[in-house]
Amino acid sequence: xxxxxxxxxxxxxxxxxxxxxxxxxxxxYQLDPNARTPAVAVNDGVDFVPTRPFYLLGQHFSAIAxxxxxxxxxxxxxxxxxxxxxxxxxLGVVFIGAVHDFSTLVASVRHGGHSIAEVVRExxxxxxxxxxxxxxxxxxxxxxxxxTDVTAxxxxxxxxxxxxxxxxxxxxxAVALAAVLYLSLAxxxxxxxxxxxxxxxxSTAIFVPATLFVVWLGTRMSTVLTLDxxxxxxxxxxxxxxxSLTPVWALLQPRGYLGGFVLYLAIGAGVIGVFFxxxxxxxxxxxxxxxxxxxxxxxxxxxxxxxxxxxxxFHGLVCSGTTSKQIQAEPHCKSVGFGxxxxxxFVAVIxxxxxxxxxxxxxxxxxxxxxxxxxxxxxxxVLIGKDNLVFATTFxxxxxxxxxxxxxxxxxxxxxxxxxxxxxxxxxxxxxxxTGVTCAVPLAFVLMAGPGAYRxxxxxxxxxxxxxxxxxxxxxxxxxxxxxxxxxxxxYPMLFVLTITLWSLLLQIKAGFAAGSTAIQTINAAVxxxxxxxxxxxxxxxxxALFGREPELTTHSATAA
Length: 561
What we know:
Blueprint: H1 3-29, H2 38-42, H3 53-64, H4 68-80, H5 82-109, H6 116-124, H7 126-154, H8 171-196, H9 200-220, H10 229-245, H11 252-276, H12 298-305, H13 313-321, H14 332-356, H15 360-363, H16 368-384, H17 389-423, H18 427-449, H19 454-482, H20 488-512, H21 519-547, H22 555-559
């Protein structure tokens, strides 16, 4: 079967979804081009900054399209086959994921740019806010756990002999060195921009080619950084600790700038390969491989394995945390919120395609980063030639690790903010303590589980991520109901995701407390119990607000519609 034809169908579904269903949702919100958005009303030049939709779309897309829509589809495609994964991505992203992102963005804009947790506080009270804040923190911990280990696994491999290379080649070592040098480049760029202040075009002309150079250098010095997975996990979390406390100009901003070029180069390579590479699908449409280590039943585990790319609660944190403060006019919410999520769906399709064109030997024993690097490398050689396969593969795997570092940095910062807010911690020492706790817990989990731990943690990560989306949609539904608007288009997706995720939690609880379970399974089960209780409690408050006795509205909530 032709990969081109499959991708063409998916693109048509996404385009029609944006045009018609996105338009329908926009009509329900009655977006007002003349309304003063928080960005316009406050406009403090720091957090609240009116931004043109084209630039905001790129910024928002870069923030949400990290490693999640790559790793999840690859693992699900390996275990369940590409057809179920493709159907969930295509339909899920249109009717659930994009609706969630769009809705949380609009809700935040109409609540003064407040976070989704604050929206829940306004609609359901302080107890609900405490519950969802704790829920978000636990979800972030599992984000850090899963992506720390998946990155460490990408950095570890044995030596191989390759034609055209005079020395032994270590694929993991090549990616590791390229990633470390890339982060170093970002720091250098940050200091150059702050103190030398060259024109942006000059910095771009120097540092973007330098990013490609470090990839090439990684292929030539691939045995320099050949550490074990546990050591890499420690180093990655040490990076998270430092990055979370480092001024944004020194690392976050320059890395995000360079990472944007890496992201779009990776997407460009994927588009070229998918549409012009002439690749045929070699993997079966349906499969069942329990040895992959994630949940064995397609229902519910397919849906929680592909979290980002179909539906992600993490996106609600981005929509309501930063993006809502930059919306210049309400109609822009459609292109930024709904549109960016559809683009992420296509990123997930490209990731899934790297599985679809692979042989069984290509997939055997490889983690998502290696599979993605291998597949994206094949796509990239359509443009640069097969003689450059080693460089192309290393670039693909480094691109994956680049996206992971974006996710890890943001998750660690958000975790620190939440702890400081929950306990009212102030000052530098408090920031150090909150960051230390946020990094120490994932480190303990990863070291306890050993190499390949991401397979043990991914299911709970995906479950908590999607359950957060369900809880966010519940809060939005309550707001819509109190505003006198129809809410079925947020309520029914919420109900579906809630059912799938609670089902997943119950199965993980059963497995974790069964005889013969591992320590990690038991820990996951205990966390699942906490998440289940928090979710049930929040839903009790939400459903009572939707269908029970209506409590009084706060002044802000009453006028926010």
